[in-house]
């Protein structure tokens, strides 16, 4: 395409920059899905059936190990607490009987068998008391305090992600009360086309970015690669652990992924502003002389302010940066353009 008058180049503010040779790595593009790190999740359930009576923690709260999440009332806990109280009384009674049998045995009044039975009774009472204390400790209940009540505490540090339980919920080991997770690290699951699966390996870096904000990217090493090809999508799943200190990444979020598969190599790169989309294609405008620009189709191979491209662009070609949007309007199908150019052809492929 050609400006109607070469002087218009300065008038409309068209600026160019040379295509440069830069060092870049090889990539495999893929679709990525963000998930919670399953090794940093906790499913909160009641070990002992009960009714939720108090909920001190809310969705979104940050908790530390041992922080209270739910207070439950349970007849089973009440029975265990009563059993512990009975067992303690039995221990005291058995200790007194053992001591009495020792005295009688020393006085040669009681038999050795009677002393042995007294010691067995004491050992049994202590075992019952230990079992009751262990059951209460596991459930989060105390030996004393509110009868029949126990508290479920946070097993890990993290954020309360889901909390379906409310006051009055009947809780059991088959009911999820809440989900607690550490979102400081997330999983990025990348679906790699079968044809490129042999190019990926453990330890390679996976970078992910959202279409809405491609400049905000996240990356982490690949820690797992599936041993099978999905029969429906013909892809292989690769998983990377991606730091998420600010909580920007969210589970079930879809992003564009890119796996770095080879060391740096020399490639052609242009400023991001030079790349314009026209329909399904991306192109740059190469300035061949004053006021004359040739649209050339390229393929973007990376993100950032300087973009690696493939196509008919060579090192040193002057590509339009400022004013590229104006030139795009001249070649877009159905566009009336700005009226400043004469389009001579469809552009290079």
From TrEMBL:
The family this protein is said to belong to: Belongs to the membrane fusion protein (MFP) (TC 8.A.1) family.
Organism: Enhygromyxa salina
Gene: czcB
UniProt-listed Pfam families: Beta-barrel_RND_2, BSH_CzcB
A single GO cellular-component term on record: membrane
Transport as UniProt keyword: yes
Coiled coil: 84-135
CzcB-like barrel-sandwich hybrid domain span: 41-182
Sample GO molecular function, one term: transmembrane transporter activity
Residues that span the membrane, as ranges: none
Keyword check for Isomerase: no
Biological process, per Gene Ontology: copper ion export; plasma membrane copper ion transport
Protein known as: Cobalt-zinc-cadmium resistance protein CzcB
Keyword set, alphabetical order: Coiled coil, Transport
CusB-like beta-barrel domain ranges (all copies): 185-261
SUPFAM superfamilies: HlyD-like secretion proteins
């Amino acid at each position: 395409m050609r400006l109607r008058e070469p002087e218009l180049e300065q008038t409309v503010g068209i600026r160019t920059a040379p295509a440069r040779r830069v060092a870049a790595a090889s990539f495999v593009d893929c679709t990525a899905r963000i998930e919670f790190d399953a090794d940093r999740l906790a499913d909160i359930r009641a070990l002992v059936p009960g009714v939720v009576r108090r909920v001190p923690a809310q969705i979104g709260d940050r908790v530390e190990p041992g922080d209270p999440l739910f207070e439950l009332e349970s007849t089973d806990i009440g029975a265990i607490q009563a059993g512990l109280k009975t067992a303690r009384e039995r221990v005291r009674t058995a200790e007194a009987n053992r001591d009495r049998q020792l005295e009688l045995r020393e006085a040669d009044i009681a038999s050795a068998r009677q002393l042995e039975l007294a010691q067995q009774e004491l050992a049994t009472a202590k075992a019952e008391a230990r079992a009751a204390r262990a059951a209460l400790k596991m459930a989060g209940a105390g030996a004393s305090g509110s009868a029949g009540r126990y508290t479920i505490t946070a097993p890990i540090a993290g954020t309360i992600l889901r909390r379906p339980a409310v006051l009055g919920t009947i809780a059991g080991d088959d009911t999820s009360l809440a989900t607690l997770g550490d979102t400081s690290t997330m999983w990025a699951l990348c679906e790699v086309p079968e044809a490129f699966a042999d190019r990926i390996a453990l330890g390679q870096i996976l970078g992910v970015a959202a279409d809405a904000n491609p400049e905000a990217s996240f990356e982490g090493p690949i820690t797992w690669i599936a041993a099978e090809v999905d029969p429906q999508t013909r892809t292989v799943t690769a998983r990377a652990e991606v730091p998420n200190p600010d909580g920007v990444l969210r589970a079930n979020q879809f992003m564009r992924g890119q796996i770095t598969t080879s060391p740096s190599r020399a490639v052609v790169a242009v400023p991001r502003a030079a790349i314009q989309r026209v329909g399904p294609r991306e192109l740059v405008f190469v300035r061949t002389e004053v006021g004359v620009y040739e649209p050339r189709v390229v393929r973007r191979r990376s993100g950032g302010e300087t973009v690696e491209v493939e196509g008919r662009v060579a090192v040193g070609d002057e590509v339009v940066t400022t004013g590229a949007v104006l030139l795009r309007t001249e070649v877009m199908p159905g566009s009336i353009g700005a009226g400043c150019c004469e389009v001579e052809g469809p552009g290079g492929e």
